[in-house]
Amino acid sequence: MADLSVHFLGMSFRNPVLPAAGPPGWNGEALRKCAEGGAGALVTKTISDTAAQVPHPNMAQVPGGFLNTELWSELPPEQWFEKELPLARELGLPLIVSMGYTARQIAALAPKVRPFADAIELSTHYLGDDSRPMMEAIDAAKSGAGKPVIVKLSPMRDMKAAAQAAKEAGADAIAAINSFGPAMGIDIETGQPWMGSADGYGWLSGPALRPLAVRCIFDIARTVDLPILGVGGVSRGTDAIELIMAGAWAVQVCTAVILQGHAVLGKIAGEINQWLDSHGYVNVQSVRGLAIERVSGRAGVRTQARPPEFEPELCTGCRLCEQSCVYDAIHVVDGLAQLDEALCWGCGLCVTRCKPRALSMRYD
Ligand SMILES: Cc1cc2nc3c(=O)[nH]c(=O)nc-3n(C[C@H](O)[C@H](O)[C@H](O)COP(=O)(O)O)c2cc1C
């Protein structure tokens, strides 16, 4: 059994799978469900100085992803201080309290959050591209709460510059990424956008977001030496491993908890363990940032096409490679893929389609 524990800003996570700020931890009871569902630590919905007035409807599943037009917590901050945070504090897991947004709002909230939080997560979602308001909010959180501050970045900005500015302002860690947008989906039976916001816009999350999250985490990890919580499109253990290989120390999950329930947190942790075990890794740290190492070890961009390796004993004859080879280099004959290397352009697509991994790429 691999060691799943993660030490993060003085907190000890029993595993690297946390809920992300949002409906998974919308109140104390929901945070209890996160704990019972196997979370490594807890993260609240973003608390601000007023209860959010959210447009309805505000959540929709769309192919490959999820749209929402939520803002921050719809509960008044007093309810958090009097009821929800005391309840969450009793759950025996590290508690990260998400807060938003401006320095003025954070200065008012931070002292009241202080008795409950092990760390603060600052949402910068509505602060715009300029780093100045974010830097002021970090300062207000650090002096008002006296706890480690994790800055959560949204992907619509230059990640490297934002991470650098967060570090300069005293941030202790980065969480990346928030949902992407604005995005939009339409119910074609009515012509109505799914979201009830004024223009029908929403924010995209879920599996479609993962490649963007991976790139952002990768960029941040190569820019600042701060610990990172990876967020975006994690619904399986292998998704989490991908974010960790990009440089995340632990991951957060929102959409998959909404769609599958709180027990998915423990399920993902179990799958991470199985994957680490089956690949001979003893702990989470052993794979952290592996993609950064691999990329820095590349001897430049290879422009010469090279056909994939083929292991016939693994081929199931499913034809997925044949269907998508636009160069006609692969044909399945008698239930087995046949690769014509002379026709292969080395694009690599078949490797990503081959479920049993009979096809693989060589990187030497
Ligand atoms: C319905 C919904 C509400 C959210 N509310 C918040 C929030 O209050 N604060 C915040 O920082 N992020 C919020 N998020 C963003 C998530 O924390 C997360 O960054 C994003 O959804 C990507 O992760 P996922 O693909 O696992 O959902 C929300 C996301 C969704 C889907």
Could you outline the blueprint of secondary structure elements for this entry?
Blueprint: E1 6-8, E2 11-13, E3 17-19, H1 28-36, E4 42-43, E5 59-62, E6 65-68, H2 77-89, E7 95-99, H3 103-113, E8 119-123, H4 131-145, E9 149-153, H5 159-168, E10 173-176, E11 180-183, E12 186-187, E13 192-193, E14 202-205, H6 210-223, E15 228-231, H7 237-246, E16 250-253, H8 255-260, H9 264-278, H10 290-296, E17 309-310, H11 320-324, E18 330-333, E19 336-339, H12 349-353, E20 359-360
Parallel strand pairs: 3-16, 4-7, 7-8, 8-9, 9-10, 10-15, 15-16
Antiparallel strand pairs: 1-2, 5-6, 6-14, 11-14, 12-13, 17-20, 18-19
Bound molecules: flavin mononucleotide.
Task: Describe the model.
The structure is a single chain. The chain has 364 residues and is of the alpha/beta class. The chain folds into two domains: 6-295, TIM Barrel (Alpha-Beta Barrel), CATH 3.20.20; 302-360, 2-Layer Sandwich (Alpha-Beta Plaits). It is 33% helix and 19% strand. The protein is globular. The relative contact order is 0.13. The model has no long low-confidence stretch (mean pLDDT 97). Bound molecules: flavin mononucleotide. Flavin mononucleotide binds at residues 20-23, 45-46, 59, 66, 68, 70, 72, 98, 123, 152, 178-179, 205-206, 209, 231-234, 253-256.
